[in-house]
Each structure stands twice: as C-alpha cells, then as structure tokens.
Amino acid sequence: MTRIKEIFESIQGEGLYVGCKQVFVRFCNCNLKCNYCDTEFAPDEYFEDFTPQELADYIKRFKNFHSISLTGGEPLLSVEFLKEFLPIAGGKVYLETNATLADKLKEVIDFVDIIAADIKLESSSGVIDSFKFHDAFFEIAKRKECFAKIVFNDKITDDEIKKCCELGIKHNILLVIQPEMQNGKMTIESSFAQETLDKFLNYYKNVRLIPQVHKFLGVE
C-alpha cells in the first residue's frame, strides 16, 4: 500500500509527448526540494492509500488515454509498491522522475515504457552536484525510450549547458530544454530562450526547446 496524492486525466504539457491525453497518478513525497517546484505532492492534508490492485482497478475508469503518467513527488520512492502495481497497471507506463535513484529504477525498468527524466541544474533548482546521480540513472534508463527535461532560467551557466550535452552525447538521449515558469508565464524573454537553445546546439544536435504547454492551456 502507498499514499497517492491525486489521480486525474489531463493533457501532457511537457517534453516529447506534449498534447497526449494521460492518466496522471501523483505520488506523495520527494527526495529533492527544487526552487521552482509548484506541485503540491506532500501528504499534508489530503491523500489516499491504495493497494496495487486498487490503483489498477481505479485506472480502469479512464478511457482513450495514451499512457499512465507516474509523477509526484518522486514515484521511485515507492518502488516496492511499483513492483506489484506495474505488471497489472493496464496501460503504457510513462515514468516522470528526477533521475537520481538509479538503483530503484533498476528494480522496475522492465515494466516501464517511457522515461521522462529531469536533469537538475543548480542555477534553477538549487540542487547541488546532481550530475553524479544523473549519469548512473541514464546508464540504466537508456534501455527504454527515454528523454531528459531541463528547466532553466537566466542564471544558467555555460558549464551547465556543456555538462547536459555531455550526458546527452554519452547516453544518446534527447534533451528537452524548458524555460522556468511563474504564474503561467516564462521567467525569461523568448530571445534568451532561443539564445540558450543555440548554445546547446553548439555542443549537441538532439535538443528541443519546449515550454510547459499545459500552463498556457490553463490545465492541471
């Protein structure tokens, strides 16, 4: 049994599968505390306990969705639950993760179809020295369809850009750079976003600039 903050259907607004209808399962708790996080995942007031079978049965009420997005928080903190749930999930599994828990991913990767993994920049997230965790994570994650999301603001450094591209090159993964949002708007000018994309492309060609589309649409 594990604590689930909420379950809902909506449109994926980030990364490679923007516009796809998904069932979102938001897990409680996270092992990081990012500066830009605006997601209410802590079990302070409302949450519901689910067994793996109860969650699989609950998801059956949704129709015509592309995949089941496991999000949070950090879903891999519930790896023991996932080992029981994923084989009976009832749909394609899309894992949204902060890409720091390689050992836990190893336990469930055979049951995951798509991995949307964050690369945490200190300049935007406040997370220090995350690349040592990301390298080990992507070594495992690249066995499946995988791409990286990188939230950035006007504090991004050339060294961070280079390190991200080195990860992309080493593991042959798509990098999706994502301008930081506040109150439904980008915190940077469009021109800066384009300049940042060009800096990435100087190192690595498999990079896309995709903002958080769900914020513009006004959906959860």
Give a written overview of the molecule.
The longest helix is centred in the last third of the chain and has 14 residues, at 158-171. Helices cover 32% and strands 25% of the residues. The strands form two sheets. Strands 3-1-2-4-5-6-7-8-11 form a nine-stranded mixed beta sheet. Strands 9-10 form a two-stranded antiparallel ribbon. Helix 1 crosses helix 2, helix 3 (102-108) runs parallel beside helix 5 and helix 5 packs parallel to helix 6. It is built from eight helices and eleven strands. It is globular, with a radius of gyration of 17 Å. It is an alpha/beta fold. It has one domain: TIM Barrel.
